[in-house]
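Section 3.1: Structural characterization of target chains.
Under the original work plan, the team committed to producing a structural model for every single-chain target entering the pipeline before any wet-lab resources were allocated. The record below documents one such target. The sequence was received from the expression subgroup and is listed exactly as submitted; it comprises 204 residues.
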Amino acid sequence: MILTIHPQNPDQRKIAQVAETLRKHGVIIYPTDTVYAIGCDMMSKEAVERLCRIRHLDPQKAMLTLICKDLSQVAEYAAQIDTPVFKLMRRNLPGPFTFILPAGSKTPKLFINRKKTIGVRIPDNAILMAIVEELGHPILTASLKTNDDVVEYFTDPEDLHDQYENLVDAVIDGGLGGIVPSTLVDCTGQEPELIREGAGELKW
């Protein structure tokens, strides 16, 4: 199923429909403020395992990411965040950044890797923020790459639907996606470290 949702003014009925799909252990594809991504309800063991199979990921090795609605929700699922890291996130979020943090006790053990870290994102995307708000807790997310040597990420939701329609429950068409992933910042050491330069310019 492909579901068109307006990127600036999401239809609340469609948002509720997507959230209900997630509650029923569904896996969906959606736009972010960078590239299109695949995700599921972080609380659904069935959906998390399915997402990992689709993306060929080992949750014990991969660094999976939570889409959160705000910094208070980030703090629920990350271990204690020190003041400099909190200020860094506050300066840059919402935005095209992924911060790696120590996983907290509320994070489901199923997808905590051996390093006991998680990625967190608060994308500047109205559709995705509305879904997380309606669901009531974060979405577990992973990016989607093409097999193309020239274009690394899918940009057209129709192409995503053609590729994944038999594997996922819904593809959300929120317009063309980007081709540059989020900037990745590791905040698990003594000082935050830039791991990958992507979209956005980090405000230190």
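The two ends are 41 Å apart (CA to CA).
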